[in-house]
Amino acid sequence: MIEVSCNDRLGKKVKVKCLPSDSVGDFKKVLGLQIGTDASKIVLKKGYMIYKDHITLEDYEIHDGSNLELYYA
Other C-beta atoms within 10 Å of 22: how many? Predict the structure, then answer.
């Protein structure tokens, strides 16, 4: 299990526990349940790169303690 932090820059910072083999889409579903937002409205970014739903966290090299930027579509 890894723990990834998501910050929406509006004061909401959420820590999500997941597996490195989970896809970004699965991660968004868990995150959506924690913050009460539909997963289809969540956009995850790091810098200028937008994470695609079908690629795993491991492939994006997201590890324990990583920080992601949370945006709403």
Answer: 19
Q: Domain locations in the chain?
A: 2-72
Domain 2-72 is of which CATH architecture?
Answer: Roll (3.10)
Q: pLDDT tens digits for 42-67? A: 999 999 999 999 999 999 999 999 99
Residue 70, token pair as written in the block: 């949370």
Angle at 61 between CA 20 and CA 46, to 5 degrees: 110
Alpha-helical regions (H) of the chain: 24-35
Q: Contact, 24 vs 40, CB < 8 A? A: no
**Whole-model pTM over 0.70:** yes
Q: List the one residue out of 68, 64, 72, 73 whose CA is nearest residue 7.
A: 68
Q: How big is the chain by its Cα radius of gyration, in Å?
A: 11
